[in-house]
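Re: beginner question about structure tokens

> Can someone show what the tokenized structure looks like for a real chain? I only ever see the sequence side.

Sure, here's an example I had lying around. Input first:
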Amino acid sequence: MGTMKVIADRSALLEAVNIIAAVVPQRTPSPALSCVKLSAARAAGGGGGGVSELTLSGTDAEHSISMSLTQVDVTDPGVAIVSAHKLQQILANIDQSDPTVTIELDGELCSIRGANSRFKLHAYPSSDFPPMPEFDAASKAPGVRAVFTHTAGGLMRLIARTVFAVARETSRYAINGVLLKRDGKRLEMVATDGRRLALCRAQARTSPTDAGSGASSCIIPTKALQLLLRLAGDPEGAVRVAITDNRVFFAIMDAAEGEGGKKGAATTAAPRAVLSSALVEGTFPPFEDVIPKDQDKKVTASTDELARAVRQASVLTNEESRGVRFAFSAKSKRLKISSRAPEVGESEIEMPLTDMVGDDLEISFNPQFLTEALKAVDEGELKIELKASNKPATIRAGDDFLYVVMPVNLPQ
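And the corresponding structure tokens:
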């Protein structure tokens, strides 16, 4: 089955294996599918030297991740296929004072050594490991629908402002993911569970290697976006995105170091990590239709004060009375938030409003739906638009975030 020997930074290797293990299934009919593929290579360098690199790969058939580590010294290039979760446990339990670990493959056994510990894992033939989808092949395929670039920080912002609103359990499979729309330079991400909707917009960067400048969209599974949040790393780096008919690919590039150690545009070197995922099938609902357009009550409030008040009021709610009542006063420009749980107690919190235009209004919401949205808002102030106690409210932050939430009925 071959040989391999590599000395790796323990903490960097553990971090990478933790991410791979989040994809790899622990129970599967195919033992190799529960494994991580370790590919150790030494590329030729100037002056007769070389650059060591260890690539880790894992897949559950729906999602695939490849990550490259350069904090390694490869003395014997090769490929080892070992249990991802056992390797994760070994690395987590090796003495943390060990700065490095040595991984050595000899036939059917792979040894992992720290300063005072040694483990051996059964290794599988490399031919048993499933082929990994490749970003370059997908981005250059004739049927690719879109290829574009966005900053890692900007993409993480889009995800963080929408993914919390995805449906957890529903028979409507198309809303078990986030809609990604790209039209020229405009990017949108949208998520809904039928009771709320989160939308975030951004401007995409342009690149000479972009493809498919027309409108395109896809529905990305929640798991893929959560993995991407863990992979992104440097917010100043770039992420190359490729959308095909049935998969989406993300190639994460770290920012390059310029003169004086300052970070600039993303390097054109190979990506640090590649994530691919099957797309959610189905048609996303026409979300534009549920965004209210006739709200006549406009409220401006401090994001932090509103978040704090909602958290306080939610303490005295329970499963039977999962809601808090909001009483907006235009004259006094104040908001009273109250909650009541039978046989538990009640609360009342008041806060000032920066401004309010329109008539007074009382309306009730699920506090969790507000708390999750407010966590995603980093602007100091937000705007709340209202119509009636039985009509949805709209929360806007800046020019790029919109959140629609349905009210709940509470007993008087």
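Each token stands for a local structural state, so reading them left to right follows the chain. The two ends are 72 Å apart (CA to CA).
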